[in-house]
Specification:
The chain contains 5 helices and 4 strands, in the order H-E-E-H-H-E-H-E-H. The protein has one domain (about 5-120). The chain is of the alpha/beta class and about 120 residues long. It is globular, with a radius of gyration of 15 Å. Helices cover about 50% and strands about 15% of the residues.
Amino acid sequence: MAEVRAERVAERVARVREAAGAMFDSLELHILCYDDVVADDPARRARMAADHMASLPPTMVVNADLSVEELMASPHALVGPVDHIADTQRGRRERYGISYVSVFATSLDASAPVVARLAGT
């Protein structure tokens, strides 16, 4: 959880892309979503998550001062209604090349409709 801001993820992906060269397209990039919540009020849920991160010890998270906008933009968070999460994930797959997303076991049931929307896309 050290750094979840979108620009930092983009920098890490760029380093991998450069190091992999022509092999990059054969790689499967993975990311863990720390906050994966199907919610009708994503801003409220993101605020709760940002507040939670701010309460963590500094040794766990570098950017505990995330704004709601930064958290919503982070590839480590997928928050919103099912269609929004599916569209967001498609966009992130295009931007970052991340095709393998893990969620915590507590999110599996809520994530099932998102997986169904993304299946085959």
